[in-house]
Amino acid sequence: MSTPESAARFSNRVEDYVRFRPGYPPALMQWLHEENGVPRATRVADIGAGTGISSQMLLAAGHPVVAVEPNAAMRSAAERWLASDHAGFSAVDGTAECTGLTGASVGLVSAAQAFHWFDTAAVRTEWKRILVPGGQVLVYWNSRLLDGSAFLRGYEQLLLDFGTDYSAVAERYQTDAQMRDWFGGGLQAVASFANVQMLDFDALKGRLMSSSYAPAADHRRHLPMLDALRRLFDTHADHGRVAFEYQTRAFLGTLD
């Protein structure tokens, strides 16, 4: 559920989030436009837009975008990054369940990495309200591969050993079956795309610290976690970098 507590989880991680969180592969927009025929001029409500990673992708593809984000620090970061270069961009203070947008004002709802924080029953009512008749919903996120390599297995163990509430957060992500049930008969397409970040140690550290369950600098497990991360990196780095691999999962449909 989009609560004040969930919205505030990233307030002290904005800089790392902006610099080190992954984007989405070009194949995602190709699939949306070329395989599924969504017009590039479609106005998008990017729900839980955070610092603007998903909004930037949509803007670059030609969409006008209104970013809906309750976290003031993240919303401000998105505005600093995107507003001056994109006339079609705006941002509003709202939640997934209460966007504050006008009814029937967007043709596509975009919900990316934040989807697992939403009240997925309540958002159906709100998103139906803001969508034009026949409007669509695109839900997508990067799923980190847990055991695709020795490095990824070691990173997963590091989170289990040092994360503050890692298991509880990880369990929030929906399965493909749950997403099919959520869309029901409105589901139109499902896809999965490979995605990877090549990270040096500083970028790997930033990627870790962008996660809400990573112990912050004042936590007793912070320094031991960074020591373990250093050892993990030194063991598996190739030419000074490690491959941080994901699958980008995407679901497109209507809420009829």
Outline the structure in words.
By secondary structure, the protein is of the alpha/beta class. Helices cover 39% and strands 22% of the residues. It has 11 helices and 7 strands. Strands 3-2-1-4-5-7-6 form a 7-stranded mixed beta sheet.
The main sheet comes to: 7 strands, mixed
Written as H for each helix and E for each strand, in order along the chain, the element string is HHHEHEHEEHEHHHEHHE
What characteristic shape results from the CA principal axes? globular
Low-confidence stretches: 1-11
Tell me roughly what share of residues is in helical segments. 25-40%
Rg, rounded, reads 18 Å
Q: Based on helices, strands and strand pairing, what is the structural class?
A: alpha/beta
End-to-end span in angstroms?
22 Å
What's the total number of strands? 7
What topology, given as strand order, has the largest sheet? 3-2-1-4-5-7-6
Determine the strand fraction and express it as a percent band.
15-25%
Average of the residue pLDDT scores: 92
Summed up, the helix count is: 11
